[in-house]
UniProtKB/TrEMBL annotation:
GO CC list: ciliary basal body
InterPro entries: TTL/TTLL_fam (IPR004344)
The protein's name in its UniProt record: Tubulin--tyrosine ligase-like protein 5
GO molecular function (one): ATP binding
Lineage, broadest ranks: Eukaryota, Sar, Alveolata, Ciliophora, Postciliodesmatophora
GO biological process, one term: microtubule cytoskeleton organization
Length: 721
């Protein structure tokens, strides 16, 4: 083959051939940090990019895993798909409407046997799994799709999921998918957008297709089909080009669990190039505008990879070769990766509620399912990543040595990470009985040290310790996968989940509490998470409470309700004093979430255009006081005054610290709405903000107007900001 045939895509040339800026804009970034997640290495089996921070955390996780591993509890060892050894018993796999050669080879090389019975350990389906496949599974059986994964893998569902998130959390937070409409249902919205941007080009795709079928560009409203369902998206007209060719990235994403959420990105993937130079003037040239391999390989100009070691030659590169090329061109690939991680996490979260609800409905074990997605991402000339689509069953065809190298290692590492274990019904029944007896013995011992009726906090429960152990063991088996959730900074994304999954916060607090080495075990020394459970009341607080000795010789005992009522009283007082248009949006959202929480026995009857936010908050305050009165009765005036005196001694920050100590899950959920994602309470934030305001008349309602407002009697009416 003549060298001139490689003129379109070849080894990175000496001259700069990347159009667009070399660096990402230095805007303030919220979310993950590359030092806390890591970026893919420069090729499989090359030197790892592990940061000093990750190395330090890994050493802590090793110790934590040792603490959580019960040497007396027998567990069937996992199958090693890389260092293959003979299996001690027969292990089976099953295909459902699939027959993928490379999956078959990886499984059978490790010793698994194909079956048509139900005694399989791995079931592989090319499409969405049918409901009956999830029935009567034991905890060792794995299916390669979660129920409802199509919420992000069908183009129409992905559009609906992202639009829903944009409406809830703002367009900017989820602005990584081009403006997209589902036709014919959203034709009116599309029509308005089309005429507002008359020079824009659009791309039409079928709602559930693959391999580039049925995709074409339009720039005239007359070209839009009106009698058949389709997806129409605004075309990215300024893609980043290499050697004048458009390209996209196939990124492999593994989700092993949704509750708690665990997301991994594979260190290697594919960069797929169009086979003809990019030109907006040739909109009908699909070889110029589409990067799908299945389409471009039909072009006479397409160059196939012939050697996995030469991974930057031809029209399909390895992802690491692409990143090496960008790095050579002076681009900060770490910043590119962190934005890609952000895009992936938010996309998975958009389907999280639909998936977890179906998992519970089907009564599945948290380990029964996994999903190996193919995320197709394109970079524009500003180095912004855009999500094109998510593939439920990404192609595992091995048309080239590069495909074989990447996809075989991908499957080996994926199966290893998931921890496939042989299943023997008889042995497992015996093991379960033995382990249950051991757990019962431990329970009997602990029951002697725990007060009767006292509930063990969830973070100290056996179930949660198993969650932590499973997470750490997965990480240890990760191979060439990078865990992006949970990872340092991933608690930022908890605010995009409704309802907030407390197990995610608990797990994050265990994994990423950076404490120095100490003699006490790591698990027991970890502080409780922000907005989570059981930090002890400071001793100073205890002294203040116990030193107040009522004349009737009664002790003043503060309940969680007392603290919450006091806090909401002060917050209501603060909100009432401020002009409503001066309240920060995040304060309004948090208070709104508190007011409308499902825990309330009554509906939000004061909601409406004539009622202010403080009035609706006041209604909840009245309901809380009435609830306390029904539970404990009406206290004496003397006792009530003593209780108020004790509560008044606490600052807003101290009240917030006590609120975080609630161990009831229902209380945690509603209390967490009064805090931001970093654990700061609304009231403290209001107080600090007001202290910085120089012209308080601009933000405070005049005192006369406040006096004329209908109000209740607050527990701490003399509290001021």
């Amino acid at each position: 083959m003549d060298k001139s045939e490689f003129s379109y895509v070849s080894v990175a040339p000496k001259t700069q051939t990347i159009r667009g800026p070399r660096e990402l804009s230095k805007n303030q970034w919220e979310g993950l940090a590359i030092e806390g997640t890591g970026k893919p290495r420069k090729g499989l089996f090359t030197i790892s990019n592990t940061s000093p921070y990750i190395e330090y955390m890994e050493s802590r996780w090793e110790k934590l895993l040792e603490e959580l591993t019960d040497s007396t509890q027998y567990r069937v060892p996992t199958i090693d798909f890389r260092d293959v050894k003979p299996l001690s018993q027969e292990v089976y796999y099953k295909f459902y409407k699939a027959d993928i050669k490379i999956v078959k080879k990886v499984l059978e090389t490790a010793g698994l046997i194909q079956t048509i019975s139900h005694d399989w350990s791995v079931l592989w389906s090319c499409g969405a799994a049918k409901t009956f496949l999830y029935q009567n599974l034991n905890e060792f059986q794995r299916i390669n799709h979660f129920p409802n994964s199509t919420e992000i893998t069908r183009k129409d569902n992905l559009c609906a999921s992202i639009v829903s998130m944009q409406e809830k959390y703002g367009y900017k937070a989820f602005n990584f998918v081009p403006d997209t409409y589902v036709l014919p249902d959203e034709f009116a919205d599309f029509y308005a957008h089309f005429h507002n941007e008359k020079n824009a080009k659009w791309i039409i795709k079928p709602p559930a297709s693959s391999q580039g079928r049925g995709i074409y560009l339009i720039d005239s409203i007359n070209e839009v089909p009106i009698d058949e369902p389709c997806i129409i998206s605004q075309y990215i007209e300024n893609p980043l080009l290499i050697n004048d060719l458009k390209f996209d990235m196939r990124i492999y994403v593994l989700v092993t669990c949704y509750e708690p959420l665990r997301i991994y990105v594979y260190e290697e993937g594919l960069a797929r190039f169009a086979s003809e130079p990019y030109s907006l003037s040739q909109k009908k040239n699909r070889f110029s505008h589409l990067t799908n391999y299945s389409l471009n390989k039909k072009n006479d100009k397409f160059i196939q990879n012939q050697d996995a070691q030469c991974d930057d030659i031809g029209h399909k590169w390895s992802l690491s070769a692409l990143m090496r090329h960008l790095e050579t061109a002076g681009i900060d690939v770490g910043s590119v990766w962190i934005k890609i991680y952000d895009l992936i996490i938010k996309t998975v979260i958009s389907s999280e509620q639909a998936v977890t609800e179906e998992v519970k409905k089907l009564n599945l074990n948290s380990k029964n399912c996994f999903d190996l997605f193919g995320f197709d991402v394109i970079l524009d000339s500003n180095l912004k990543p855009w999500l094109l689509e998510v593939n439920l069953s990404p192609s595992l065809a091995t048309d080239s040595p590069l495909d074989t190298h990447i996809k075989s290692n991908l499957l080996i590492d994926a199966f290893n990470l998931m921890g496939i274990r042989p299943f023997d019904k008889k042995k497992e029944s015996i093991n379960k009985l033995q382990n249950r007896l051991k757990m019962q013995t431990k329970s009997d011992i602990s029951s002697r040290t725990v007060s009767p009726g006292r509930k063990v906090p969830f973070m100290q429960s056996t179930k949660f310790k198993e969650v932590v152990r499973d997470t750490l063991e997965e990480y240890k088996r990760r191979g060439h996968f990078i865990r992006i959730y949970p990872s340092k900074g991933s608690e930022f994304y908890d605010g995009y989940m409704e309802p907030i999954k407390l197990v995610n916060r608990y797990l994050y607090s265990i994994l990423y509490t950076e404490s120095m080495p100490r003699k006490t075990p790591i698990y027991n020394s970890v502080q409780t998470p922000e907005l989570a459970v059981t930090p002890k009341l400071p001793k100073r607080h205890e002294r203040q409470v116990s030193s107040e000795k009522p004349k009737s010789n009664e002790k003043v005992l503060l309940t969680g309700d007392d603290v919450l009522i006091e806090y909401v009283s002060r917050l209501c007082h603060a909100v009432k004093a401020l002009k409503e248009d001066k309240l920060k949006p995040q304060w309004k959202r948090s208070i709104e979430k508190f007011i409308t929480h499902q825990v309330w026995h009554t509906s939000d009857i004061r909601r409406g255009s004539n009622n202010r936010l403080w009035q609706r908050l006041e209604s909840r305050l009245i309901e809380m006081k009435e609830r306390r009165r029904r539970l404990v009765g009406t206290p004496t005036d003397e006792f009530e005054e003593q209780r108020r005196q004790v509560l008044r001694q606490f600052s807003a920050a101290e009240l917030e610290s006590m609120l975080k100590s609630s161990c009831r899950s229902s209380a945690i959920e509603i209390i967490s709405s009064l805090f931001d994602l970093e654990g700061r309470g609304i009231l403290s934030d209001v107080i600090k903000w007001l202290a910085t305001v120089t012209e308080k008349d601009r933000v405070l309602i005049p005192l006369e107007e406040q006096m004329n407002q209908e109000t209740t009697i607050y527990d701490s009416i003399d509290d001021t900001l």
